[in-house]
Design goal:
about 375 residues, Heat Shock Protein 90, five-stranded mixed beta sheet, about 65% helix, alpha+beta
Length: about 375
């Protein structure tokens, strides 16, 4: 408390409390002189005044050791009435800045000091209990006011702390939302562009290694390259749109788009067969996930098993969920198309977000199978 530098507000509070203690002593001293109620020994009144001045001056040290100063002033107030104002200021400081146990001890000490002072220096014809009750009332008022100030400060500090924590939590939520948005964009770019670019790579590689191919094959490969490049640009524009619009506003593939993608891969030269046995209308979220699973699987076949035949089986119902399996035979050597190694990882994340399960691995015939089960939302 005393280590920190006083602010302008602290100086104003200290000056106000100091002036209150001085004014208390002056008023009481003036009343004694005016009413000719001085002690029998004149020197005792002079000592009382000197003690009052010293007590008021000691208030400037109350921020360093409030409990110690209060104890000293309470003890002195048992023989000197002019230091009473300083003692009340010290009690106020203790109640504001120290625990209730310390405040209770100082309060009890003040009552004892009041009783001792009344016994040593009785107030004319006033009964002892009246003087003690008056001292109790004054101390109670000072302590109550101090406790109100203390609890108000604690409330303000608590509200400030809660506001700070709420702001930090809001920042964490915003960072988490941004992270999820980045992951969503990364998945979309990998799934969409990986599919298109793998088509470009396969046909460009065919043109590179078969420069003597018939003109019809070259024309067909060039047509596929041009179409895939155009569609890749369209897909890229849609993915970039994630940065400018909510995901819900972007065109998203569904189960109904699956035959179109299969036909596109077949035109590019991949032997692929689709068997679909889904009962009812598939929810959009499930259909989109199925589409991405098949899309990534076909992309991986083009990259790692060029020329392999592929079977796509999609079955399911509202009571059983949807099962999708993509199985390819053993194919030629990898096409040489670059891969990030994150395709299956992204699929696993996508399926897990949908509440499903994903498995993958080699088949006994030397091919590869990707299998996933997705729940049917109620």
């Amino acid at each position: 408390m005393g280590s920190r530098r006083r602010s302008v507000r602290d100086w104003l509070v200290d000056i106000t409390l100091f002036l209150f203690a001085v004014l208390f002593g002056l008023v009481l001293s003036t009343a004694r002189i005016t009413a000719h109620e001085l002690p029998d020994q004149k020197w005792l009144f002079d000592v009382d005044q000197l003690v009052g001045v010293v007590g008021c001056g000691a208030l400037w040290l109350r921020r360093r050791s409030p409990a110690g100063l209060c104890t000293v002033l309470m003890v002195v107030s048992s023989v000197s009435e002019l230091v009473g104002g300083a003692a009340m200021v010290a009690l106020f400081t203790v109640a504001v800045h120290r625990p209730m146990r310390v405040t209770a001890v100082q309060f009890a000490l003040g009552i004892v000091s009041s009783v001792v002072f009344t016994v040593l220096r009785p107030e004319g014809d006033l009964p002892l209990y009246v003087v003690v009750l008056f001292g109790l009332a004054v101390q109670s008022a000072v302590t109550g006011w101090a406790l109100v100030v203390r609890h108000r400060r604690e409330l303000v500090a608590s509200l400030r702390d809660r506001a700070l924590r709420a702001e930090q939590e809001a920042e964490l939520r915003a960072e988490h939302a941004q992270l999820r948005a980045r992951e969503s964009i990364a998945r979309e770019m990998h799934d969409v562009l990986g599919h298109r670019l793998s088509l470009l790579s396969v046909h460009a590689g065919a043109l590179e290694y078969r420069p003597d191919a018939p003109r019809e094959d070259i024309a067909r490969a060039a047509s596929v390259i041009r179409e895939s490049a155009h569609q890749a640009l369209q897909d890229l524009r849609e993915v970039i749109g994630v940065l400018r619009a909510p995901v819900q506003e972007l065109p998203q593939p569904t189960m109904a788009d699956l035959p179109t993608m299969i036909a596109e891969s077949a035109r590019a030269g991949m032997p692929v067969v689709l068997r679909s046995g889904v009962e009812g209308t598939t929810p959009d979220t499930v259909g989109r996930t199925v589409y991405r699973i098949v899309q990534e699987s076909l992309t991986n076949v083009r990259k790692h098993a060029a020329g392999a035949s592929v079977e796509v089986d999609v079955t399911g119902a509202a009571t059983d969920g949807v099962t999708v399996e993509v199985t390819n035979s053993s194919g030629a050597a990898p096409s040489g198309a670059p891969g990030s190694g994150q395709g299956l990882v992204g699929l696993a994340e996508r399926v897990a977000l949908a509440g499903g399960r994903l498995t993958h691995g080699p088949t006994p015939s030397g091919g590869w199978r990707v299998s996933a089960w997705l729940p049917w939302p109620a």
